[in-house]
Amino acid sequence: MSRIKIFADSTSDLPKAWAQQHEVGIVPLYAVFGDESLKDGVDISPEELYARVGREGRLPKTAAPSPADFMASFGPYIDQGYSILYISLSSELSSTYQNALLASGEYPEGSVTVFDSLNLSSGIGVLVMQAVRAAEQGKSVSEIVDLLTGMRPKVDTEFVIDTLDYLYMGGRCSGMQNLIGSLLKIRPVIKVINGKMTPAYKVRGKREKAIDQMLTNALSKADEMDNDTIIVVHSMCEEDALMLQKTLKEQTKAKHVELSTAGCVISSHCGPKTIGLIYVKA
Q: How far is the C-alpha of 117 from the C-alpha of 97, rounded, in Å?
């Protein structure tokens, strides 16, 4: 039986302790400031990214790993006889998936399997952890892919964006929308549907109101959760994340309610104080 090495990319926002404990390989995406390409989580942290955006008044562009980047990560394990399973950022959001497929074609057939998460952030993370557990139980790559394929449409990813400024600077909303949204204090709530970031609804008023609404939505579906893991992911708002974690532990039957922090790529698109909830439907 071949050994299996699970890979994800930096947009999975997998806590470092999890990645280290389960030996998950992480392929970083890039934050690009002008001619400077910085590896997400390696060359730059979210705190450093926000500080730089504040100084320069511009967002970085984000870039997928190249096929060569994937080969540099996969190659040493292929040489050791591992089979690779890479769980990617949604193909609807990035060329990361396609570049990984190109890299996989450079190895013998079956050596590298690329699975499209159709998700982002900890929506990828829950799939990665399912894959890790299955691999540790001795399941084959094809068995794990079947498991993930069944689980993928059940992943519920929802998050509140605190400010429209980053969406505006990134070209994802107009200047007028940004102005009106700021004046009215509109907090957009985003869901991931069919691999795409989709506006679910807007909450007008204080940020706490939007977070409470997201929490209420999740708790209203507590009976539909698989009761294994809920992940609270955040960008620079740990206090809010801890509050959500405490409430979810008290009011759901989930075995694990974990915290994760958003990396540079997710943060550059959504901005500081973004917070999200991810769980899997039964």
A: 9
Closest CA to 195 of 243, 155, 139, 244: 155
With beta carbons less than 8 A apart as the criterion, state whether 154 and 226 touch: yes
Give CA–CA dist 25/21, Å, rounded.
11
DSSP 152: G
- Does residue 181 surpass a pLDDT of 90? no
Query: According to DSSP H, which parts of the chain are helical?
Result: 16-21, 46-56, 67-79, 96-104, 122-136, 141-151, 165-169, 175-184, 207-220, 238-251, 264-270
Token digits of residue 134: 């299955």
Whether the pLDDT of residue 66 is over 70: the answer is yes
Residue 31's nearest CA partner among 23, 39, 22 is 39
- Which of 176, 126, 171 lies closest to 148, judged by CA? 126
Integer Cα distance of 86 and 145 in angstroms: 10
CA angle 131, 21, 29 (to 5 degrees): 70
pLDDT at position 185? 67
By DSSP bridging, strand 61-63 and strand 30-33 are antiparallel
Q: Element (H or E) spanning 153, and its range?
A: none
| Other Cβ atoms closer than 10 A to 64 | 23
Tokens coding 117: 């998460």
Can you tell me which residue has the tokens 């557990």? Answer: 133
Higher-confidence position of 272 and 166: 272
Residue with tokens 């999890």: 18
Q: Which of 167, 165, 169 is nearest to 182 (CA)?
A: 165
pLDDT, residue 171, reads: 43
The model's confidence at residue 174, banded by pLDDT at 50, 70 and 90, is very low
Query: Please, what is the average pLDDT of the chain?
Result: 89
Share of the chain above pLDDT 90, in %: 74
